[in-house]
Amino acid sequence: MDMLIALIGAGSGGSFLALGAAANTRLRKTLQSSIAAAAINFMVGSLTLTLLILLGIFGSQNLDRLSQVPWWAFLSGLLGAVYVTLNTIIIPKLGLTTTALAVVCSQMSGSLLIDQWGWFGVTPHPINASRIVAIVLLLIAVALTQFDRRDRGNTL
Predict the structure, then answer these.
(1) Do residues 31 and 93 lie in contact, with contact meaning Cβ atoms separated by under 8 Å?
(2) Cβ neighbours of residue 94 closer than 8 Å, sequence gap 6 or more
(3) Is 101 within 8 Å of 142 (Cβ atoms)?
(4) Which of 154, 148, 131, 144 is nearest to 101 (CA)?
(5) 87 with 24: CB under 8 angstroms?
């Protein structure tokens, strides 16, 4: 049952990413600025998380150990900002589906390496044939969405 709940949560998170990417693309179009759209995205997100912490909705948060966090763990905020900004630039060119597929494919490739060697404190999960096949299938999916684009006469 725990695995099912985790899969539903991950699937919901993926849908939220697609909705958020579409909303950010609209924000970029209206503001005519990828950086402004990404900044607003993170401001709203930060305010939301701050409110959740203040309200104690997920229990009390132990921030006493913040000084013990390795420096590289703080790069996640920077990487998130780059990701959101790049999405707002790329989605109008590739479309949401191709962009999402390319993101998932590169995410899977990076995850495969991190899992293999247990980098960043992650529990190791060795590379196996099914994981390689999954990445190949994602590459095929990216290519297929671009063939469709080419068949309609659209070019990058």
Answers:
(1) no
(2) 102, 156
(3) yes
(4) 144
(5) yes
3-state secondary structure of 9: helix
Q: Tokens at residue 70, please? A: 């390795």
Provide DSSP, 48-112.
HHHHHHHHTTT-----GGGGGS-GGGGHHHHHHHHHHHHHHHHHHHH-HHHHHHHHHHHHHHHHH
pTM of the model: 0.78
Query: Cβ contacts of residue 37 below 8 Å, gap of 6+?
Result: 24, 25, 27, 28, 31, 84, 85, 88
Tokens of 58: 């997920």
Q: Are 116 and 127 in contact (CB under 8 A)?
A: yes
Tell me the CA distances in angstroms from 92 to 28, 64, 130, 148, one per residue in order.
Answer: 10, 42, 32, 16
Q: What is the pLDDT along the chain (156 residues), one digit of tens a residue?
A: 688 888 888 888 888 888 999 999 999 999 999 999 999 999 999 999 999 999 998 888 888 899 999 999 999 999 999 999 999 999 999 899 889 989 988 999 999 999 999 999 999 999 999 999 999 999 999 899 888 665 565 555
